[in-house]
Specification:
- The chain has about 190 residues and is mostly beta strands.
- Strands 1, 2, 3, 4, 5, 6, 7, 8, 9, 10 and 11 form an eleven-stranded antiparallel sheet that branches.
- A hairpin with a 3-residue loop joins strand 5 and strand 6.
Length: about 190
């Protein structure tokens, strides 16, 4: 992974990056990232992604040796808000487009198989909040909402919940850090027909 950061002034930062992915049985692939941060709290970003099918997806229980790697492009806008010594909140709006998205599909009669869906798009919002309670305690909250859409079949993407969230409580005593966490995931569409 290579990254270049250029800070023209304290209110303007440009970041670019590239990562070369090499999976033994597939051609080499390069992912890119470009980010622009203004006034330290607002960030625009464009990122490409690559996910090779796993050995289990190609040769396991729902195998498909013909699976292609999944690629993606994400555009995002993040706004951070901070309160001196009290905490911070971050909100991100995003849109991700996938090509050759890997998912489980029914072949009928209860037989499932991993398959590529040529075009998938998901849009949503992610938010996190960190609050400092005192010198030993901190609370972290996270929430996300997304609308995953299969652009070929014109339906909601299977096995992707629209909402998810978590709450964490951190407590520190000397060199020990304790965490209590609760997570939640909304309904997801799992029907195979």
């Amino acid at each position: 992974y290579t990254q270049v950061r250029v800070e023209a002034n304290p209110n303007f930062l440009i970041e670019t990056g590239a990562r070369v992915e090499k999976v033994s049985h597939l051609p080499q692939h390069t992912n890119y990232q470009i980010g622009l941060t203004i006034f330290e709290d607002t960030k625009l970003e464009w990122v490409t992604g690559y996910r090779a099918p796993s050995a289990a997806q190609k040769y396991g229980l729902f195998q498909n040796a013909e699976l292609e790697p999944e690629t993606s492009r994400t555009y995002s806008l993040t706004q951070n808000f901070s309160w001196e010594g009290q905490g911070e909140v971050s909100i991100t709006l995003f849109e991700t487009s996938f090509d050759d998205y890997i998912e489980t599909r029914s072949l009928g009669m209860g037989v499932l198989q991993y398959q590529n869906t040529s075009k998938v798009k998901t849009r949503g919002v992610e938010s996190t909040a960190n609050f400092i309670v005192n010198s030993e305690d901190r609370i972290q909250l996270a929430y996300s909402y997304q609308e995953p859409w299969d652009q070929v079949r014109h339906e909601v993407l299977r096995r992707r919940p629209r909402v998810s969230g978590s709450a964490r409580f951190f407590h520190t005593v000397e060199n020990w850090r304790w965490m209590l966490e609760g997570t939640g995931v909304g309904n997801r569409y799992d029907f195979f027909g």
